[in-house]
Amino acid sequence: MKIRLKDAADFVGGAVIGDPEIELTGLAKIEEAVKGDLTFLYLPAYEKFLSSTKASAVLIGPEFKKTRDDISYIEVKNPNVALQKIVIAFFKPKLSLQGIDSSAYVDPSALIGNNVAIGKNVVVESGCIIGNNTTIYHNTVIMEKVKIGSNCLIYPNVSIRENCILGNNVILHSNTVIGSDGFGYIPDEKGVYNKVPQIGNVVLEDDVELGSNVSIDRATLGSTVIKKGVKIDNLVQIAHNVVVGDHTAIASQSGIAGSTSIGKHCILAGQVGIVGHIELTDNVIVGAQSGVSKSILKPGKYRGSPTLEMGQMLKIEAHTRNILSYAEKIKKLEEKIASLEEKISKLTTKGS
Predict the structure, then answer these.
(1) Distances (CA, A) of 222 to 217, 237, 239, 240
(2) pLDDT above 70: residue 209
(3) pLDDT above 90 (res 96)
(4) Residue 313 DSSP symbol
(5) Stretch among 107-116, 120-129, 206-215, 306-315 having the lowest mean pLDDT
(6) Contact indicator for 155, 189 with CB cutoff of 8 Å
(7) How many CB atoms lie within 10 A of CB 5?
(8) What residues contact residue 168 under an 8 Å CB cut-off, 6+ apart?
(9) So which residues are the catalytic ones?
(10) pLDDT (0 to 100) of residue 346
């Protein structure tokens, strides 16, 4: 793909500084870019690479000095957002999979929409419905009565269990499992765990994207629901009957126990653990490696295990960092108190 610098600048509403006719053939990080590449600078930590980058042009914010005249610039308010727009419009990879591969098994009862692509060794079982323009890559298994919307992209080795529902524009990355059994057991009088049938399903609404190795359990009854626009990173576990609200983002290695409800526009950073049967309201941010043990009903930033409001947690951390000096001060105070007590004791003895 080739694009003129001027066309890229016009597309993102930026101002060209330098040669507007430069042809750009690729995109790269500022420290790795070569001639023909467009790169970007939006964090001060990367400004040190500006003097050495071999890029032909840089998307750059107005706060940065344009110190080199041997390269060109597109000045925009938000270079990060501008780069994303350029990637989508001009450099987004085009998938080559077309048609239904001869090695795939598609049950005769399945309803397959227009322009659907199905790769090698895919299994589509009875009663499934697959919408228009959906692509399903190799070795994926789709069990009975699954409904998949239009414009979905399912990468290799995904498993989708029976009766689950995917909306439109859903993206599932490799090795993700939708609708595995929820962790439901009841111990008998001897302490032997007996499996409770998990007869619900999973519903992924429109515009959901799940990373690789995500596991979302089917509900015991009803549905585990991942609502519109939710983005989930790799290696995340969502237990049975969880509801995740619209446009919430969940980072890698987080886990949510059963029947918990997460609100809209929440952010769970990496390695967050949330117990079952609680609620997080809308617009809650939980910091990395936090443990949420009770409901959070007030929007805001939280962190720690057990989780506290961010301001309170930062104060505790500040004191924790100083705990050795506190211990030394306490030791000295104890020595002073002991010395004073000894002097008082002697004075008391003399007085008597």
Answers:
(1) 12, 19, 13, 10
(2) yes
(3) no
(4) H
(5) 306-315
(6) no
(7) 23
(8) 131, 149, 150, 151, 152, 206, 207
(9) 240
(10) 83
